[in-house]
């Protein structure tokens, strides 16, 4: 048990590459290699709060991610976005780990379209819990935006933890500061191609590329790649209004396969559909 | 006749455009203008002088009717065809009535005019007397600037006591930088100005014994133009640009940057008042220039004090000498103060420039004689044995410029007292409307000594270099610009840190795509290889190996509307030396907001560079007149927030706060500059009073 605990913390700290504070979530996003910065959908509450303002209805969504061969690396997330007169607000919950080591984040987000720009801001409370060591927490802030540069070409930028918050009672424990930017190009309605650059200040910069293709009405195929570390991604999505169901799988050299599934529900008011 | 009718039509057609567009031009912020034309550099080049020159032109645009070829050349983004177009147009049609007449010249489309318009104007040709001119200056302003670092550096802490009982070195002054600059000028008539400065760590003290008189640095100039037979007469600080910069060069030009074609040429700006605070380039004294028909003549006499540590012969304690002139201009510690103004540099010289064949050929002659009050004797090393030694040097050069249709051929050849020779020669040509190209050859012998030159090359000194440069600028399709250069160079003698003759290569390829007037994307690649020493720890031997640095940059610029613009940069560098690889990376996001009375710029960036060699350079907006390209390595984040406010009609106010935070360091800097902690915060404030 002790051995497993040490191994688990070791693996997490070396390979999980800031999975803890998530800036990428959703099976829809994972299918395109998390090249999500310029994408506006309900998962934007995790990926780039700027995209939230694209939603016109209430959305409720849930996702679960786990490695095929590894225990203790599970990720669970859920959220709700509610359009208001003054913009869209949302709440998101995220948890990584197991009973020995876990990280949880609760976030409040606000997104609005101002002029040409979709802007979003997020306030997060993060808590780290290690069995037999106790807990530590910190508040941190995110900012993001998406703008259409020319028709069919969108650009997004997102900064997480720009104030570089520290854990309340632990020395030298800055939470990761992350910046990501991305382009999304939709030459025809059926096809979108994304290219992102992702930088966690502690790790090598990553390039994330992805393609989504609508192969048949309401059926989406996705694939993507990442560098540093190299990973492949594949995904599929089905739209069964008011539900969207997505699944994605990725392959990591050391950690092996990981699967993610997500479901999103759109609440239409009477007569709106 | 047909032409003149067309011209009148064009003039009226452009009238309402003039009104509409000129407002736009005036509301354009200088920072925005400069970002459009100055390369978004990722190299360690000092563009301060150039920035200064562009700002002078911006506040005081060139008159299309009276500007000379050299003036247009100094707007480095103009092609040879465009300059020829203006000159020919003036010859054929006489005076320009409006800037918008340029549109009828080949090579000036809307974009070109937009780029050029902040720097040109059309003035009336009425001659004003000096007396009435004095009441109506073009520029009359005063800048006051304050800069400081909020964290305490080691130099400002109390000194430690060494075991010998001596105290360790500390800065004598406070950590604030104070700067003020005044200018009162009218183009073509007069210019009067001063600059005063105190660097961080310097003391405000009156102590003639150590050449300290209140502020640390003073510069002043007074210039009158067109008085009697004199073209210009300057008293005070000035700089000279003649030929290709072998003898006289002020640094108003690029190194190898993105402007791949015109960068090889030095512009004959001639005599210019000196307004910068760099304390090693200027002349100080009297200079006059005069024009007699096709002959231009300029002569000067200068006396400047330079910083150097005076040493004496160890045996007899006589024969004072110095090893090197210190050019930092910093006088913060007792040893720095002891070096201040210890060498007197007296120079006299001049230039003759003669135009023949309708101005298509220019011939010139430069000469300078310099004497130091104390001889320079660098300690003998293998690499520096051909450097200047002694207290007197003279140098002379001949040059020509020849304009042949779309081509400009130029050359300068010089020689100094030691018989060291130097030649800089090149051609810039507009081959077709889509293609501009240039070629440059340089050969600077190892014993060529020029104290005031600034010629094209890889070394900072004009010596020990031999190289070939090719540059092109292509417009393959509308909206797209491709620029590229390759520079092959050799250093025929040893250099500091390179124990054998070495060679290198510098290659750049850059592409700009202008989607529309609001969106621009740029991708640039640069690869540079140079040789340098590597010490073998085991054998106490030194090997010389190539060091290759590749840099890649992506830049996106988008104007959302009149008020908002965003900019994104991603840049990466990778250095290969002796089987080792080092990486560097930077990502930055800017948001800019602009209104007539208020503008705000903010940036957040992350950087991560494994070594000093892969450090990331990135241009930053700053106070007006401050050209800032900080570089970063290690892991960290940086933000800045800059605002400009026009409170009253005549007062502008700038405020900038910036902070760099390191995630893998517990201290920043070294020596007396060391900060104990992982953040560094700069605070800059500036006021400009328009008088």
Please characterize this protein's 3D structure.
- The complex is a heterodimer of chains A (273) and B (691).
- Chain A is mainly beta and 273 residues long.
- Chain A has a single domain, classed as monomeric porin ompg (Porin, Beta Barrel).
- Chain A is built from three helices and 14 strands.
- Chain A has a 14-stranded antiparallel barrel.
- In chain A, a hairpin with a 2-residue loop joins β2 and β3 (87-97).
- The longest helix of chain A has 14 residues, at 2-15.
- Chain A is globular, with a radius of gyration of 18 Å.
- Helix content of chain B is 12%, strand content 47%.
- Chain B has a 24-stranded antiparallel beta barrel.
- The longest helix of chain B is centred in the first third of the chain and has 26 residues, at 2-27.
- Chain B is globular, with a radius of gyration of 26 Å.
- Classes of the chains: A mainly beta (273), B mainly beta (691).
- The A-B interface holds A 115-117, 147, 149-150, 155, 157, 159, 162, 164, 174, 177-179, 181, 197, 199, 201-202, 204-205 and B 515-516, 519, 556, 558, 560-561, 564, 566, 568, 570, 572, 583, 585, 587, 589, 604-606, 608, 635-637, 639, 661, 663.
